[in-house]
């Protein structure tokens, strides 16, 4: 029987509301969106860039609030999420939903004026995708929840690219692909560790439905895709060979850790957790490399 969450009416603190917006996710969104702006061939005014980044981050936070509003029943039963503001009774459900909807609208409007219609439309779609398509529809209905839903986390660099004045094309599609391919092995590694949690609440994560072996197979396959995708920016002229060398080393490490997960015993939780932790570092360094490469390119090219 599902746990019934009861709370006493009170005014949520700013800290509770901020936690509702998933600040760690917001920081990743800001970072990848910034890189999308930096690698774009167009220039944008620094003030407009900063405001656009804040709008993109706010949109991500708003969708996070909507996600926690809808998932408050299962969050209360999972060890990883039981301390979130809603399960703890620190925020009322209507406060969470109101926050998510209001910030969603405001973030899209601000980005429309600072980053243009294309970027604003993409942000609106991203909020809808994560808040409804993933949270309401996919998460509790299919083992492909992370695969399809991963698109939501892959949109920010594209939004950043568009906000800087870039057009849709191959380059932003590759930025999208890197995160899209990275998301399944990243979350499936965690799902192996938290399998009991997902089983308890009935979320059909891959290891819950198809077992550890099938999940490990998929992790390794996606790791190979990640390693290749990480090097593609150089092949299309978006980055230098220095970046390609960095991505090759990081990709090889990603594959090696995924291979270790594939070979590991099902009772071994340390190996998939090691992959999960490295995957975070991998994405950070890949986008850091892309951003630095774009920032210094005018100097080493003599521009």
Explain what you see.
The protein is mainly alpha-helical. The protein has two domains: 14-166, Tetracycline Repressor, domain 2 (Orthogonal Bundle), CATH 1.10.357; 169-295. The protein has 15 helices and no strands. It has helices spanning 14-20, 23-39, 46-70, 72-75, 93-115, 117-138, 145-149, 151-154, 156-163, 170-193, 195-201, 206-229, 232-235, 241-263, 270-300. α2 (23-39) crosses α9 and α5 (93-115) packs antiparallel against α6 (117-138). The chain is flat and about 55 Å long. The mean pLDDT is 92.
Quick description:
The chain is mainly α. It has helices spanning 14-20, 23-39, 46-70, 72-75, 93-115, 117-138, 145-149, 151-154, 156-163, 170-193, 195-201, 206-229, 232-235, 241-263, 270-300.
Order of helices and strands: HHHHHHHHHHHHHHH
The tally of structural domains comes to: 2
The helical percent reads over 70%
Main beta sheet = none
Tell me what portion of residues adopts beta-strand conformation: under 5%
Report the CATH C-level class of the largest domain: Mainly Alpha
Which radius of gyration do the C-alpha atoms yield? 20 Å
Molecular shape: flat
Oligomer: single chain
Q: By CATH's scheme, which homologous superfamily of the largest domain applies?
A: UbiA prenyltransferase
Name a few traits of the molecule.
15 helices, Tetracycline Repressor, domain 2, 2 domains, 303 residues, flat, mainly alpha
Q: Secondary-structure map with pairings?
A:
Elements lengths: L13 H7 L2 H17 L6 H25 L1 H4 L17 H23 L1 H22 L6 H5 L1 H4 L1 H8 L6 H24 L1 H7 L4 H24 L2 H4 L5 H23 L6 H31 L3
Helix pairs in contact: 2-3, 2-9, 2-15, 3-5, 3-6, 3-9, 5-6, 6-9, 9-10, 10-12, 10-15, 12-14, 14-15
């Amino acid at each position: 029987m599902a746990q019934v969450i009861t709370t006493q009416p009170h005014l949520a603190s700013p800290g509770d509301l901020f936690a509702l917006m998933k600040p760690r996710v917001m920081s990743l969104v800001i970072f990848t969106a910034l890189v999308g702006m930096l690698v774009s061939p167009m220039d944008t005014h620094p003030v407009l860039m900063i405001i656009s980044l804040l709008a993109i981050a706010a949109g991500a936070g708003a969708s996070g609030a909507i996600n926690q509003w809808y998932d408050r029943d299962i969050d209360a039963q999972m060890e990883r999420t039981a301390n979130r503001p809603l399960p703890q009774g620190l925020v009322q459900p209507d406060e969470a939903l109101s926050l998510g909807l209001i910030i969603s609208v405001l973030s899209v409007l601000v980005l429309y004026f600072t980053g243009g219609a294309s970027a604003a439309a993409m942000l609106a779609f991203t909020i809808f995708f994560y808040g409804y398509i993933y949270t309401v529809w996919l998460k509790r209905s299919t083992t492909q929840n992370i695969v399809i839903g991963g698109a939501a986390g892959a949109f920010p660099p594209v939004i950043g690219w568009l906000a800087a004045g870039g057009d849709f094309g191959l380059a932003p599609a590759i930025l999208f692909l890197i995160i899209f391919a990275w998301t399944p092995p990243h979350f499936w590694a965690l799902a192996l560790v938290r399998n009991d949690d997902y089983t308890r609440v009935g979320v059909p994560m891959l290891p819950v439905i198809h077992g550890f072996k099938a999940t490990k197979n998929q992790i390794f396959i996606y790791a190979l895709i990640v390693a290749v995708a990480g090097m593609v920016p150089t092949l299309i002229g978006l980055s230098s060979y220095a970046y390609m060398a960095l991505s090759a080393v990081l990709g090889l490490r990603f594959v090696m850790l995924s291979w270790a997960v594939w070979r590991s015993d099902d009772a071994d939780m340390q190996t998939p957790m090691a992959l999960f932790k490295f995957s975070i570092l991998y994405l950070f360094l890949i986008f850091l490399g892309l951003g630095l490469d774009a920032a210094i390119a005018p100097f080493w090219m003599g521009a």
